[in-house]
Amino acid sequence: MASRTWSVLLTLASLGLHGAATANDTEAATAQARQWATQLVQQTGAALKKELAASGPEGAIGVCKQVAPEIAGNLSRENGVRVARVSLKVRNAVLGHPDAWEQAVLADFDRRAAAGEKPEAMERAEIVLEPAGRYFRYMKAIPTQPMCLACHGATETLPPSIVEKLAAEYPKDRATGYSAGQIRGAVTVKRLLDTP
After folding, report:
1. CA distance 55 to 91
2. Three-state DSSP class for 139?
3. What is d(CA 98, CA 86) in angstroms, rounded to the nearest whole number?
């Protein structure tokens, strides 16, 4: 963690950026982003478990489509940041597409997982200069849980009713074929620090 923080500070210095970015500021921002990511994952997981118990996997599809974006939207509005879920294999064609920075982080997460690192411990935090300003960026990997396989597992193992519902709800779905423990995507947090 310390080397990552120093990397961020060195990057800022090499870009000639001004501001009060300190190791403590970066650590505090990371801790807050980690908290928002945890809230999104826990609240979505609780809603999924409840719906799975009440109406099975078919009902749970609605949680991912409506409830999870609502939770992310509420966290974003309440905190003045962008909190969302993104993936390299997007299910929802409207939501979930990663930007260039997020794509690079997700690809890095996949490489690290292939090398044996545990997905539940993977995160990245850094300050990034973009055309619209300087942003604090954070991502936390989302490992595929066993309950996720009811809708995200191998297509040939999914019940026909789930395959039909996914095709109706998500005609461009690419989010199947996972096994437990694989990285399904990540929670992303983006906060504007200042404008050019």
Report:
1. 21
2. strand
3. 5
Q: Do residues 33 and 135 lie in contact, with contact meaning Cβ atoms separated by under 8 Å?
A: no
One DSSP character per residue, 75-123 reads HHHHHTSEEEEE-SS-S-SSS----HHHHHHHHHHHHHHHTT--GGG-E
pTM of the model: 0.84
Q: What is the pLDDT of residues 112-161, one digit of tens each?
A: 999 999 999 999 999 999 999 999 999 999 999 998 898 999 989 999 99
Residues 140, 132: Cα–Cα separation, whole Å? 23
CA distances 169 to 54, 70, 86, 93, Å, are 20, 17, 18, 10
Instruction: Give the residue extent of every domain in the chain.
Output: 2-194
* Measured distance CA(3)–CA(13) in Å, rounded: 15
First-last CA distance in the chain = 28
> What's CA 4's distance to the chain center, in Å?
19
**Lookup: tokens for 171:** 């005609």
Per-residue tokens: 116: 């044996």
Predicted confidence (pLDDT) per residue in 153-168, tens digit: 998 999 999 999 999 9
Q: Which two tokens stand for residue 108?
A: 């890095």
